[in-house]
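User: Quick one: structure for sequence A, then sequence B.

Assistant: Sequence A:
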Amino acid sequence: MCGIGGIKLTEPGPIGEELVRMMTALRHRGTDSTGFALYGPWREDRLIARLRVAEREILDATLKAIEGELQKAGGRFLGPPTWDSAERAQDAFVRLEVTPNVDVERVTAAWIALGGVEVHSFGHSLEIIKDVGDALTVAERHGIRRFVGTHGLGHCRLATETDVDVAHGHPFWARPFPDVSIVHNGQITNYYKSRRLLEQSGYQFSSDNDSELISVLLADQMKHGKTFEEALRYSLTALDGVFTYLLSIPEGIGLAKDRLAIKPMISAETNRAVVMATEEQAIRQVLREEINTKSYGQGEVVIWARQDG
C-alpha cells in the first residue's frame, strides 16, 4: 500500500519542496511515517552522517560519545553538529559533517552500540531524513522544503509487518555504502535466507526491514563489479516476492519491478525533470504542463542517469 516516488532534475533545484508535494499527494497510501533521500552537491572532502538520538535531554553527552567513537574509527568532526529545532520533542535528529577517511562500518556499529542512536545515512551527497507522521509534519520539523539538489526519493508508509517508528521508516541507506538509498513497495519472501547470506559475508543490518536488504544486496553486487543496470537485473532473479523499488546512487535513479508487476510505477519526463511515482497524481504535483506518462510492467529495469552541468 505504501507510496514511493523520485525526481531527477537536469539542473540542481528544489527537490525537497517537490518531493514534499509528491508525498502529500500520496498520503492516502500511508501516514505512519514519511521519509526523503536527498542528493545535494557531491564533495569528496567530507561525509555527511544523519543520526537520530532517542533522548534529547542527554544529547550533549551522547554527542561527546559519538565524537569519541568517531575518533577511534579514524575520523573527526569538520564542524559543530547541528540538529532539528523541535525543542519539545523527546528525540533529536543530528547532522554531522566528518572527515571522509573514517571507517564507515566501524563507526556505524559503534554509534549504534552506544544505545539510543540510529544511523540513517552516510554520504558525500546523500542525506536521509525520515520521521513518523505525514509529509507535511515531517517537512515542517526537518526543513525538507529548503533542500536544493540534483535528485531524490520519497516514501510514505503504511506499516503492515513491522513497528510504527522512525527506525522502520523509509528510505533506507545501504549500510555501509555511502550515497546508496532505496524506497520500496512490496514484500520480499526470501528475506531471511538472503539476509543470512549477506551476514555471512560480514554485513550488518540496522533494521529487519526487507527494503534495507535490497539496498545492501545491490550495493554488494556493484562492489564486486556489476554495473548499476546489472545489479538491478540481478535482483529480479535473486529476490522472491512482489516488489517495485527505486534505488538511488549519485549517478541517478534506477527502477526494478518483479516478474508479477503487481506494484505500480509511472513516470513522466520533460526537459527539466524526470519524475516517477506510484500514482500519476503525485507526478502532476511537479509537472504541471501537458505530459505523457509511461507505466512499467513485468520484470522491467529502467535507469534515469544524472546529467551534470
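Sequence B:
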Amino acid sequence: MDASLLTIQPTSAEPIYRQIVEQLRRLIAGGQIAPGELLPSVRDVAGFHAINPMTVSRAYGMAESEGLLERLRGKGMVVAQAHRSTQTQAQRLGLLEPQLQALARQTTELELPAEPVLRRLSKLLGE
C-alpha cells in the first residue's frame, strides 16, 4: 500500500486519526489492500500528508485494537490475516450509511431536489 492511497482532509470536522481508520476499514473491506499487505510506516504517511506522526500512530493503534491490522516485529503494520475481505456488498454499503444519512439530511436542509444530487453523485463516481 502506498501512503497516497489515503486521503486526508485537514479541514474536516472528523479528526484525522478517524479519517485514517475509516479509510483503512473501507480499503480492507473493498479488497484494495489485502491480508498480509504491509502498510506504509507512520513516518511515511505523516510526511506525505504533512501531519503529526502521533496522529498516524494513534490511527494505526486503533485499527490494530479493532483487529484490522497486525504489528510485525521489525517489519511494521500489515493487514490482519484474520480480517479477510469477505464482507458482502450489503455489509460494505453499510460502511457508507452514516455518510449517506448525512448527505440526505443536508440535501433536505438545503431544500434541493434529489435528482440533481443523484446526478452529481453519479458523476463523482465516474458513471
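Residues 2 and 40 are 6 Å apart (CA to CA). The first strand starts at residue 69 and ends at 72.

User: Thanks, that's what I needed.
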